[in-house]
Amino acid sequence: MTAQELPNGFTGFANRKPLGFESARSAINANARGAGSSGGQSAYEATSAAFNSGAEGAFQYARDHARPDDEPAQFDPDKLRLIPTTDRRWAWTEIDLNAIRYNATMIKQRVGAGVRVMAVVKADAYGHGAVKCAKTALNSGVDYLGVATVDEAIELREALVNAPILVLSQPPLSAIPLLLAYKVMPSVYTPDFAIQYAETADAYGMKAPYHLAVNTGMNRIGVRHDEVVEFMGQVSFHRALDLVGTFTHFATADSAETLDFQIQVKRFIEAVTALNVAGFNPGIVHAANTAAAIRYPDVHFDMVRLGVGLYGLHPSSVTRPLIDLKPVMSVHARISDVRTVPMSEGVSYGMNYRSPGSVKICTLPIGYADGLRRGLSGRTDVILKGQRCRQVGNICMDQCMFEVDMRTYANRLKLDPQIGDEVLLVGREGDSVVTIDDMANTLGTINYEVAIGFSHRMPRYYV
């Protein structure tokens, strides 16, 4: 026997096909022909149909469908790109743009026609997608946009968003050329930044528009409330500087206790009054965040800043009875595995959960890398076919599991979970609902943090 005749040896596999050898495709086709007279379609028949159906089959992503049988298919990169993201991974978020419109309209009605509204779309619109949400809000009558960073503003400008954009903090000095080139307004509260901003603008024959940030007690950013006139005296000489607005931020507008809020209001009104008395026009005066816009008409001033409320989330329980808002985000996944786990066997890392028997354990391809926080392990539900099911076991980086009780109950429809079934992790189906607020309360945090977490890597669909 020669080396070439060895079926499997240290010298490698034989090049000669063994007696009776046929390719996988030939075997599938032969099986399909043999089963052609039967009434039902076998798995082999279905596979064969897929392989031979051209544009609808397994070779729809090949460069050439009509190739000789002995030549392998070659993938076409352009066709591969056409595979939708829902078919690449069974986990995604949906963003209801009609809910954005509804929430913006509700706030506009509450503040009245004479008050502008700024949509705050920082942090990728709280995880909802900055560009789409900004455009939807502007089309719903919003006047201004607020962001946290220069890059967030540039993203909007490059998406052809032309509304006024305010960066809600003072950027680094090195970002000044970007502010001017992209026509983005900064918040200003240090003389060094104000002067260099003005000097750069003047060198390009431009104005340097800005909003003056006033610190009324939150002690995060801003010129101290009783030093605003002195600050303006230091910088207002520069011909390029253009004070477009003056604002502060409330630390406790969403709290039941109001003393600190009232102190901040008093200080802000005194600061704006002092500017006027000293001959400085404060421009657009704004202070109210979502909570203050809903609760306190006296602080609407010239503009309110609509943040978390735009996305249908309440800043706290105190605003919930005062206005109806619609949640914008829902989180979905499809079951990727179903198995019966015998009684007392564990599930997931640590095996903190043990099967009670008579349950099916279903796996979802979503985990804490996608924003489903590990702290929710065993403490949240999912919704399958309108019924709440308990999430069980530790949530993994990319996957999690939930339990379906297979026992029969007189008052409940028995579920039969299958791979590919859609499951709701956040949202409403029938009478069952799981909310971002539920998750935040369980975690002991705020809904802002949970919502932003779902922005990491899942596909996002706008409906």
Round the mean pLDDT to the nearest integer and report it. 89
Total of domains? 2
In CATH, the architecture of the largest domain is: Alpha-Beta Barrel
Q: Helix amount, in percent?
A: 25-40%
By DSSP, the count of extended strands is 23
What share of residues are in beta strands? 15-25%
Largest sheet: 10 strands, mixed
* Backbone CA Rg: 30 Å
Q: How would you describe this protein?
A:
Catalyzes the interconversion of L-alanine and D-alanine. May also act on other amino acids. One of its GO terms (cellular component) is cytosol. By secondary structure, the protein is α/β, with parallel strands linked by helices. It has two domains: 223 residues, Alanine racemase (TIM Barrel, Alpha-Beta Barrel), CATH 3.20.20.10; 134 residues, Lyase, Ornithine Decarboxylase, Chain A, domain 1. 29% of the residues lie in helices and 22% in strands. It contains 14 helices and 23 strands. Strands 3, 13, 14, 17, 18, 19, 20, 21, 22 and 23 form a ten-stranded mixed β-sheet that branches. It has an eight-stranded parallel beta barrel with strand order 4-5-6-7-8-10-11-12, surrounded by five helices. It has a two-stranded antiparallel ribbon with strand order 1-2. Helix 1 crosses helix 2, helix 4 packs across helix 6 and helix 13 crosses helix 14. The longest helix is centred in the middle third of the chain and has 19 residues. 37% of the residues are buried.
Short recap of the structure:
With 463 residues, the protein is an alpha/beta fold. It has two domains: 97-319, Alanine racemase (TIM Barrel, Alpha-Beta Barrel); 329-462, Lyase, Ornithine Decarboxylase, Chain A, domain 1. The protein has 14 helices and 23 strands.
